[in-house]
Structures are given as C-alpha cells and as structure tokens.
Amino acid sequence: MRAHHIDRPADLDTVRESYDRVADNYAHMVLTTGLGDIRRHPWLKASIDAFADSVGELGPVLDVGCGPGTVTGYLAERGLDVRGVDLSPRMIENARRLHPRCRFDVCSATELDLADASLGGVLGWWSLFNLPRQVLPQVLAHFARALRPGGYLITATHVGDEDAPRTEAYGGVPVRWTTHKWRPEPYVRLIEQAGLHPVAELRLPADEQVGPGLVVMARRPG
Ligand SMILES: C[S@@+](CC[C@H](N)C(=O)[O-])C[C@H]1O[C@@H](n2cnc3c(N)ncnc32)[C@H](O)[C@@H]1O
C-alpha cells in the first residue's frame, strides 16, 4: 500500500487505450524519421547526457512514460541501471522488442509504488502532460520522495496555456487525450514545491514539427 496518495485521473483508461492504438506508429516514427529520438536532436541529447553524467552511480533510474524505450535504451547503453514504465501495454511490448536487454513494466505514473530515497534519477520525458493539472503536483512530490538526496529529476513538456484536446495522432490514428500545456514559470514552481531544486531549464521554440517545449532538470537537496 502506497503511503503517498495520488488521485486516479478520470480519463486514465481512455488515455491508455489511445496510446495503445498509436504505439506501433509511434515506434515506427522514432525509427524511421528520428522524431522523438534524442540522438537526432542535439539539445535534447545534451540534456539527457547532462542528466546521465549527473546521476552517475547515485542509484537506479526510472524512465516514467518511457514509450518504446528510446531514452531507456540510450541510458542503459551509457551504463546506467535504468528501468522503463509506461501506462500503455502496447508501448511496453514495443520497448521490450526494441530493447530486449532493458527491463520494462506497465504502470501509470499515478500508481507507482516507489520506496523513499530509492532512486538516483527519474525521468518524466514528454510523458507527464496528460496528467490533470491537480494530479501532476502529487506525482512530482512522489518522484521527489523516491529520489535519494542528491538525486535528479529530468522532465520535458509542451509549453502553452491550453488544455488541448487531441483527437488524432501519429498518422491519423483516432485518440482521445488532453495535452495539458504549461508555462515554464508555473511548471518550475511545481517542481520546487515538490521539494526539488531546479538546476537547469531549456526552452525550445516551436519548429515545423512540434510546438514549443521545455526541459527542466532538478535535484533533491542533501
Ligand atoms: C509522447 S510519448 C513519449 C514516450 C517517451 N518518453 C519518448 O520520449 O519517446 C508519451 C508517453 O507517455 C505515456 N503516458 C501517458 N500517460 C501516462 C501515465 N499516466 N503513466 C505512465 N505513462 C504515461 C504514454 O503511454 C506514452 O508512451
């Protein structure tokens, strides 16, 4: 039983089914176009490299919302003790197929059973924006408690004001989810309120393919 209560998002099952439907196209997109592959985006790669260098041997790393495991696999190649979890069973099937040496499990960010001070690092890499606005702080607080003192969170998310309904994605597949966009200042404030100290922020302007984004890395004091 988790000591830390997190509300269950009302749309969790709908979001899971939607990502199950797009999972094969998403994995194919990463492999064929490089979109979503940090190796093809120097600033995203630099952020993940800085995270990996900082975590070093502090402890295990959990990639929450790992999708097909692109970043999980990259961190494993870099020698980190990393595991991926995702809400969507189909995403996890793809992750296991593409990265057979890594460990992956199906789990929602809202249902993780994490011992206090058990992780060296945690990622919410383009995977927390479906969480309702009142649920995200609860998840961040759970992550913060799960980090060892000196451990790191890295998160990337979409920037804006809207709660944008999405009805199709990744090749016209019908989906139903909401992208809760955040302005950088309130997003960073949530991370601070969770008990973490921001160490770096990277703002990414919109390009031809995706809207503006934000990467934040933060550290548990101690
Ligand atoms: C845009 S994909 C990003 C995947 C991966 N992090 C990457 O960068 O390729 C968003 C992922 O978040 C997952 N996701 C959405 N809500 C989640 C939740 N509540 N718990 C865990 N994963 C979630 C989705 O299933 C999907 O795989």
UniProtKB/TrEMBL annotation:
The family database entries (Gene3D superfamilies) matched by this protein are listed as:
Vaccinia Virus protein VP39 (3.40.50.150)
Keywords annotated in UniProt: Methyltransferase, Transferase
GO MF term set: methyltransferase activity
**GO terms under biological process:** antibiotic biosynthetic process; methylation
Indicate whether Transferase appears among the record's keywords. Answer: yes
Specify the domain of life of the species encoding this protein.
Bacteria
Give the Methyltransferase domain ranges: 61-151
SUPFAM superfamilies tied to this protein: S-adenosyl-L-methionine-dependent methyltransferases
Keyword Transferase part of the UniProt annotation? yes
- Entry's Pfam families? Methyltransf_25 (PF13649)
PANTHER family named in the record: TRANS-ACONITATE 2-METHYLTRANSFERASE, TRANS-ACONITATE 2-METHYLTRANSFERASE-RELATED
> Under which name does UniProt file this protein?
Putative methyltransferase
Species of provenance? Actinacidiphila reveromycinica
